Amino acid sequence: MKRRLISVMLAAALILALFAACGGNEESSSKETGSTQSSSGSSEAESSTPESSSESSGEEEASGSEPMNLVVAYPLINGVPQDNKLIEAEINKITQEKLNDTIELMPISMGNYQQQMQLMLASAEKLDCFVIRSNSFNAYYSANQMTDLTDLIQEYGQGIIEAVGQSFIDAGKLDGKLYGITTNRDLAIGHGGLVVRQDYMEEAGYKKEDIKTIDDLDGLFAKVHENHPDVQIITSNSGSSIYGTLGMSFDPLTDGFAVLRNFGLDDLTVVNAFATEEYKEYCLHARKWYEAGYISADIAAVTEGGPSQVKAGRAFAYNNRYKPGADNQESKICGTPVVTLTVLSDATYTSVPQSFMWGIPYSAESPERAMEYLNEQYTNPDIMNLLAWGIEGTHYDMTDDGHITAAAALNGAESGYNPSAGWIFGNQFITHVWEGDDLNLYKELKAFNDGADKSKAFGFTFNSDSVLTEIAAVQGVYDQYKIGLESGLVDTEATLSQMLSEMESAGIGKIIEEKQRQLDEWAEANGVS
Amino acid sequence: MLNTLAASENRKAGSVWRRLKFGIPLYTMMIPGFIYLFVNNYMPMAGLIVAFKQYDARKGIFGSDFIGFQNFKYLFATKDALVITRNTLLYNGVFIVLNTVLSIFIAILLSELFSVGARKLYQSVILLPFLISTVIAGYIVYGFLSADSGFINKSILPLLGIDDISWYNEPKYWPVIITLVYIWKNVGYNCIIYLSAIIGIDRQYYEAAALEGAGKVRQIFSITLPMIKSVTIMLILLAIGRIFYADFGLFYQVPMNSGALFPTTNVIDTYVYRSLIQIGNIGMSSAAGFYQSIVGLVLVSVSNLVIRRADPESALF
User: Fold this and answer.
1) Dihedral angle of Cα B201, B204, B206, B212, to the nearest 10 degrees
2) Domains and CATH numbers, chain A
3) Separation between Cα atoms, residue A473 and residue A486, nearest integer Å
4) Is A480 in contact with B260 (Cβ distance < 8 A)?
5) What's the predicted TM-score (pTM) here?
6) What is the complex's ipTM, to 2 decimals?
7) Please, are residues A188 and A346 in contact by the beta-carbon 8 Å criterion?
8) Taking residues B287-294, what's their average pLDDT?
């Protein structure tokens, strides 16, 4: 009897322990809400004014007297900076006074961002503003995970419209409604960009101005190869195919399979990207380079970035997009002076501004307050500089001529806040310029954005819901052949026709047809021809 | 406890309630484990329904619209479907056979070692690759196979007078490379399980056999192998249950995600990963997982049935 009693008690203890372990968090959080409830209850009993006034005015005016905590998530290449909390506290000083909001910054490392966002959205975690990347835009839309911002931005985001410009804002529209707001940064691409070592180029007797088309590269490559036979002439930047930035001359219309030729400047006829003359010509070029020994046979397996290969003295050039300030930026990473050659024109199309946009998730507590905060973030230089560069005196100092530089207080030690991503927070154009860059950098960048050719289909986003199966299948085919073809590792004619026939059976025709249909509808609704 | 239970059973045979009552403490002890299993492994199964739905965050998993088998279509949309199914099944089939045979072989070799110290040393050395991350294993392989600086292209092939081979562009070599890497990585782990089974065999059997004049080989075939039969069958059955799941790292990291190698390295997991990283559709990812589990369940049930026919003692259930 006694033994049975003991065993029952033991079992009971086990179960209790289990519940205690599982419910620990819940209990403490429920206690918290309990206490806040009781405090609000008492304040109600005292009939304090803020409570009642916020209730009455809550509908019309978003930023009421009721304080609110907003969670703001965005990707950063290196994840959470050490001094993130300090920045957060400084921003809160501003937002608490102006909007009665407290902000919780949630940087997530770039590699995990997509996955972590998917989890946060699926579980409806507390999240008020987040960065939408173009490759997730359609997925979020299909799962209805974004808030429609069309009216919100008119009411609470006039500052954003003014800062970014209506035309670039329109790039965040899908099926006529606005879901994402692009950030002010380089919103056009210098196509056909190739970053080359300046010393090798000068040694070969070439200047930047000598290179105008892809054919001009042949002579330069031959000369450098002769001078430095052990150096790989052209390598891919971070494992991607060289083609994407060096050869591509389309408006990719999101997926890059069904595209408009010549950056969409001429007409609105959707074609198969891989069946075009341009694509084949580029592949033949790559084949020629590979056979001449300019491209490594290992290019399919190398995942090391272009800059680090140049830095190690193993490569002469890698593909990259051009924008004002790019040479300075790339030279810093490469550890040696480099210049960017461009063999195609500057152009922009919907997917460029779409690559980073701010949006409000469906689960946001108050989309109005979130939009108000975003408006503040886009227009307030103090917040923008805090996010982009940190705290003055702690992370950076002003120089006499208006630049900023590493803070003297750091004594040469590594800064605790260095996201090197001023372009992601909304409005890079109102931030300081780091020493070494031209003080006019952002003016140049704006001129570059506005001066670039704009696709006729700018503002059109393909809704891929009805052809997801085909896109997955075509992607599978493309992944198999792209590096081989676009790096010249295989015979162009035979492989290209093989890939085309496989894509045909994977349903690329259906993607083109559906996209053309949507594009025609969009063109008619927006008066584009 | 068991004694009292047995005794009471004898005294009051047939009284189910009595037996239950005595079992209560035992059943109560089962509850925590059961709750854990239920919460962690059974409750999420309801979410599988999302594989048949057009997921809409505002409507939630259960409120979303039902679209039938639409999400499964992409798995069978191209000729890839055949290639990835073939690759997955063939690779795993080969892995199961080779891994079992080699693990048992090495386990027997180790068990025959007299020096305990030497056995521990060999065992650790064989286990080490299992503990190495696949990413690192991928770079070790790259060290061998790189076209410009690889050990094989620069040191071995010139000795044999063979031209350089561009390993990462030639699919035909990869079935062998992948299998070698898999065996190198996994044999040590399985070997430990077999070794512990072999060590558990009563030494008296071997002594008796030796007295009767049986040699080492005879002893292995007549004593060791029959004695570890149930462990072997259990491990094989478990492996068959996962035959539709491929070791993602092995097929993604080791071939360095090289597109040219897809004909021989693309398996269901890598195919799904590559298509969904582009699309990011929850319903379609769940469909892939659902399909894999159903095929796994069918395969385990069938092989268990076959084994039960042949040898009821060894069947799992």
Assistant:
1) -150
2) 65-188+348-462 (3.40.190.10), 192-344+466-526 (3.40.190.10)
3) 20
4) yes
5) 0.79
6) 0.76
7) yes
8) 86
Q: How far is A293 from chain B (nearest CA, A)?
A: 11
| CB neighbourhood size of B137 (10 A) | 19
Q: Which residues pair with A197 in a beta bridge?
A: A338
Question: Which residue from A minimizes the CA distance to B64?
Answer: A143
CB contact under 8 Å between B275 and A114, yes or no, is: no
Residues of chain B with CATH 1.10.3720.10: 70-314
3-state secondary structure A489-514: CCCHHHHHHHHHHHHHHHCHHHHHHH
Residue of A479, A501, A508 best to disrupt the B interface, most CBs of B under 10 A: A479
The answer as to CATH 1.10.3720.10 being correct for domain B70-314 is yes
Give A217-254 pLDDT, tens digit per residue. 999 999 999 999 989 999 887 666 788 888 889 999 98
DSSP state of A415: P
**Distance between CA atoms of residues B204 and B227, nearest Å:** 13
* CB-based contact B282 A143, cutoff 8 Å: yes
Q: Is pLDDT at A27 greater than 70 in this prediction?
A: no
Q: How distant is the alpha carbon of residue A98 from its chain centre?
A: 29
Phi/psi at B82 (nearest 5 deg)?
Answer: -65, -45
User: Does the beta-carbon distance from A472 to B169 stay under 8 Å?
Assistant: no
Q: What are phi and psi of A129, to 5 degrees?
A: -135, 140
Q: What are phi and psi of A434, to 5 degrees?
A: -75, 145
Query: Higher model confidence: residue B60 or residue A270?
Result: A270
Q: Note whether B280 contacts A136, CB cutoff 8 Å.
A: yes
The helix or strand, by DSSP H or E, that contains position A28, with its residue range, turns out to be helix A2-45
Distance CA B8, CA B6 (A): 5
> DSSP code of A275?
G
From chain B, the residues in CB contact with A473 under 8 A are 74, 77-78, 80, 275
Given an 8 Å threshold on Cβ–Cβ distance, is B25 in contact with A471?
no
